[in-house]
Design brief:
The protein contains ten helices and 22 strands. The protein is an alpha+beta fold.
């Protein structure tokens, strides 16, 4: 990457200072410049590890969150229908299409998916954490380093309620469910309702103007560069082999004392498979357990007078303030119920009702590589729903029917049963909520839809802690190699993964800092915007 790829006041972030160095070396190299990788880097620098390199396959430009850079409709379109996003790429082949095909892929740019998410910050549920290593659950939920648990610390830094959903005061009641405001790591600005969700980049560039703030001391970025493989010598990770994008690009080695895989679940899995095969050639070139959240819902437009006749909390539907609301649905659904309410006109309410549920890790879904003489190996994704996942789909549809019946009763609509498509071949996906799709419908709904696996940007569980990784986030078979992000979750639960990703990034940074002789001390995520 040339410094021309960076804004002028951020050019000092470029690495290395001497590009022609014969044997470049860094203390820690992080593969991937998204939410997980950038947060690990930020925490490491704050802990005094002053030689950290983040390698990102995409460019270091367009560094603002999509909701800060674009109007709401354009931002939503970029998120749900990425065909027009120049940073969208898919580096695998799906043999389970339409799952993990079409709109499934990576956002290859510095900042990655942290510049696209909507800030939902929920802890993994206790019933899912039961399958996680006890030491990690204690750090997340009980106490970390003698202080507050990680979930509470990170939630407080993000400005959200760290309590479980069932312990918060409900503000909306629908279909027998009592919902609270969705905890969202977002900041509003301006007079037109604009906002952005948290990104580690917020500490280094202004999240609204993009101007440089206090530079990332101790961190450098190598963008427009693909990591082909992890360098292994004497059974230990010693660095990475990289190739810059573009014609006539050469392969070179970058040495490091520690390597962290943070390139997204499928790319990190590809790199891990290559490493594990190098250590043990008899090992199958496959990692099982790939999951994504099971998501389906319906959209409804209703006319409303705004008079519900009931001012008691929790409020009814007619007088609810616009926004996102959530509650847990654990009775067989293993899901969270989200209700998003908009009022585009004084007498019109829009309801986007969805459930986000857990797909259980298993052998039916996996990432497989085709061993070849040169890296990177060709990668294939296989996705299959287990009987337990089909049960979740069925229970979600029952919950959606309950919510629909309540909405119909309140607004005087005929509550015919919801009609759902085949989950594996839906006619309407989550992109249906785009304004042009909804606007093309002549009736008010309800319109059911579902997300294909791989399109929620929540894929994980191929490098689980306590199995492929130990409880220090290190590969049990490869000293010096670590991983972070949802790939490391033993179970996903129903929660959006970002809060847990940030908490585990903080934990991993302290592990690495201790390994490099740095004394741990408190680190916060407060943003000076």
């Amino acid at each position: 990457m040339s410094t021309a790829d960076l804004p002028p006041d951020l050019a000092e972030w470029q690495w290395p200072a001497a590009p022609n160095t014969d044997d470049p070396h860094c203390r820690v190299v992080i593969v991937g410049g998204g939410l997980a990788g950038l947060e690990v880097a930020r925490q490491l620098a704050a802990l005094g590890v002053d030689d950290v390199l983040v390698i990102e396959a995409g460019p270091a430009r367009d560094l603002l969150h999509i909701n800060s850079a674009h109007n709401p409709d354009e931002a939503l379109r970029t998120f749900l229908d990425p065909v027009g996003d120049p940073h969208f790429q898919r580096c695998w082949t799906s043999d389970s299409a339409p799952h993990y095909a079409a709109n499934a892929g990576l956002r290859r740019r510095l900042g990655g998916r942290s510049l696209y998410w909507y800030g939902a910050s929920l802890p993994v549920e206790d019933w899912a954490l039961a399958d996680w290593p006890e030491s990690i659950v204690t750090d997340l939920r009980g106490s970390w380093q003698g202080g507050r648990p990680l979930y509470e610390q990170v939630a407080a830094d993000l400005g959200i309620d760290p309590n479980r959903l069932d312990s918060q005061q409900p503000v909306l009641k629908v279909g027998g469910f009592r919902l609270v405001r969705t905890p969202q790591a977002e900041t509003r600005f301006g007079d037109d309702g604009r906002w952005y969700a948290y990104s580690p980049l917020d500490h280094w560039r202004h999240p609204v103007t993009g101007a440089a703030l206090d530079g990332p001391r101790g961190i450098r970025f190598l963008c427009g560069t693909e990591v082909l493989s992890v360098d292994i010598k004497d059974g230990r990770a010693r660095g990475v082999h990289v190739r810059e994008t573009g014609p006539n690009a050469k392969v070179r080695r970058i040495a490091a004392d520690s390597v962290v895989l943070a390139a997204g679940t499928i790319e990190s899995s590809r790199l891990a498979i290559q490493v594990l095969r190098a250590i043990d050639p008899s090992r199958p070139p496959r990692l099982n357990g790939l999951t994504d959240h099971i998501v389906q819902g319906f959209f409804l437009r209703v006319r409303d007078s705004g008079d519900s006749g009931d001012d008691r909390a929790p409020r009814g539907l007619s007088d609810v303030a616009p926004g996102s609301y959530v509650t847990a649905c654990e009775d067989g659904a293993r899901s969270n119920l989200f209700v998003t309410v908009e009022r585009p006109e004084p007498d019109v309410l829009l309801f986007d009702v969805r459930l986000t549920g857990e797909q259980v890790p298993g052998t039916g879904s996996h990432v497989t590589c085709e061993p070849a003489g040169e890296y990177p190996w060709r990668t294939t994704v296989t996705a299959a729903l287990a009987p337990a996942d089909r049960d979740v789909i069925g229970r979600q549809r029952q919950v959606l029917d309950e919510v629909w019946n309540q909405l119909a009763a309140e607004f005087g609509l005929t509550a015919t049963p919801l009609a759902f498509d085949d989950f594996d071949h839906p006619v309407r996906t989550n992109a249906f909520v785009l304004p042009e799709s909804i606007g093309a419908e002549t009736s008010e709904g309800p319109f059911t839809w579902s997300s294909l696996l791989g399109t929620e940007d929540h894929e994980g569980c191929t490098l689980p802690l306590g199995d492929v990784l130990d409880d220090r986030h290190a590969f049990t078979a490869v000293p010096g190699l670590y991983a972070c992000g949802p790939a490391t979750f033993p179970r996903m639960g129903a929660a959006n993964p970002s809060l847990t990703t940030l908490a585990l990034a903080r934990r991993l940074a302290h592990v690495l800092a201790a390994a490099h002789g740095r004394q741990a001390h408190p680190v916060t995520s407060e943003v000076d915007a």
